């Protein structure tokens, strides 16, 4: 199909308008694509930032939970008077009080010098665990007396009482007469553990 010169002149303007509209349309499509890509980049950045914030909040919540747990343990240790220097007078008072309250026949004990068991690194200073070895000799009417003594000793506080061993032997003495005669003899090795927080002392 051929066009005359006159028809070509008439088609020139619509062709130019059509080309211009195609160019504008292409520009709009390109601009929309760029806008979409920019929006996707911003969305990805926002999502990444949100993930980082969520992880940061989770870490903070976990650290807060750990601090609260450690504070609970610290308060319990403080309430039991386990923190700080050894309390030999309090240990002696507790043993004498238990002997009288439980009406034990005979209780003898010896506490050795304190020794450093472990030093745990901490901030701003170390936490040191000390143990004083105690040997206790008891004369008993029956086994429950020993269990009651150990339970009362642990409940008295002023140290963490770690029972290493207890040896029970029969005395062989006959039960009779007015005076109560011990049927059992117990010998216990107990570590009295105290905790020194060097940071608290500074």
Descriptive overview:
By secondary structure, the protein is of the alpha+beta class. It has two domains: 1-79; 88-201, Alpha-Beta Plaits. Helix content is 52%, strand content 27%. The chain has helices at residues 5-79, 88-101, 143-155, 198-201, and strands spanning 106-120, 127-140, 160-170, 184-197. The chain has a four-stranded antiparallel beta sheet. A hairpin with a 6-residue loop joins β1 (106-120) and β2 (127-140). The longest helix is centred in the N-terminal third of the chain and has 75 residues, at 5-79. The termini are far apart.
Task: Walk me through the topology.
Elements: H1 5-79, H2 88-101, E1 106-120, E2 127-140, H3 143-155, E3 160-170, E4 184-197, H4 198-201
Antiparallel strand pairs: 1-2, 2-4, 3-4
